[in-house]
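TA notes. Do not distribute before section.
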Amino acid sequence: DLPADYYVTGLLYANSVNTAPLGTIDAFVKTGIKEVREPVPEREIDAFFALMQKKKIDIEAIYASLLEEGLDAFQKAFAEIMKELEKG
């Protein structure tokens, strides 16, 4: 199990935007850990993508799938928000 604030503390980079749920943000505020992370070195990024290619993992297909899932989730959430706003 990951800590409740993982998706904030684990992704805390300068000039980044975090869209975490309010419960996650509340947990982050309570921990007091506000240390900005350094970017991952380019050599590590290159090594990661080389490994993906070596293992024949189609990263472009993964990107496409994640984008499709994300857009679908956004559309559903947006529709729910609009529905609630229309109730007045």
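Switch to the second chain here.
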Amino acid sequence: MAHTLTEPQWVLVDETLHALADFAHLPPSKRPAAICPVCREPVLLKLGTKRTHHYAHYSGATCATTNPETALHLNTKCYLGTQLRDASALRIAIPCQNRCGAWSRRPWLQDWDTVAIEYRMDSFRPDIALIRQGKVVGAIEVVVTHPVHEDKQAYFAQEAVEWIEVAGNVRLYEGPIPWRPNASLLIIEGRGSPPRWMCTRCQAAAEAAQRAAEKAQIALLAAQAQEAIAQEKAQAELLAMQAQKAAAEEKAQAQEVAAEETVQAAQGKPNREEIRFVKLIDFYFPAGKKVREAYYILHHYHKHVVTQIVLTTARGEVIVHVRASQPKATIQNGLFIYLQQHVKRYLRQAQPITYDGSWGWQPWEDGQLLMATNTHRFPFRYVWDATQQRWVDA
């Protein structure tokens, strides 16, 4: 079954929220009338075997769930909310505040008696509300495009409501091991009411860095004191010492340059082309599929000196050459303008419903693998070809 995970997968039947999978075993004539939980308009259930279960609005509908980000937000909060209705406690996984990849499991809330989705609290609606004896004691906010607004955070604090942020992710509700309440729920670091946490390894590193800084400060003060004494003894001696130090630094710098030239010569690439940065732009289509275009900034070297900067696509299409001798601002502005023109031309030709270019320029690494989809053949992959020095179709 092909996956279209950014399409809505939850409906209301008799004002009760249901996953589409609840009706997959029924023949079409026996399936109940369902409405969209966002726009509350009737929808047509799509429960075939070729694509992930989803639903479609009737002609003329303008529901926000046609946006993949809105559908991801809906699917995540509905899945988490329904899972928590049969649970009585929730453990969370708090990432290390240094974002090293470590995280800590700990209890968060327990003993709620009701779970509500989009529960009204004055002018606010938490995505998931955990209610005990009629009072909201906890809130879970699903983040897809933007975090919880400061006004909502202040309201939670005022009402003594514990809250967390969870990133919307298809892996929470799809795949071989979807999330269950007996597992810890990974939250967004630094957001919500739980205190921040640092792993022992990062804490030890921070303490070591602090000790090193203190030691360096003491050494600096001692050196300054010795310098003052030396100045009192003889200005001439100080000048000689400074001259000797400058000569040593100049010699070390010359040795470093010579070593670099030796390495470059050993590589045998005084004239070469290097990919320095990569940027991805996603183009979304009405069917829920997308095209991912990869753009690269290449440096052309002549005798180890950058002479040209080239903007190109992963498919080998050269967009523009820019002389490296121009001012940096001129180069950046030129690359931006030509990239913008190329994207606009792509939009006119492919006619997607939207595109996302928020993925900024990133340094590239050998062996990196890019995944992409298109409307004719998907999924496919880009792999790094060291011989051609570019991304190619796998």
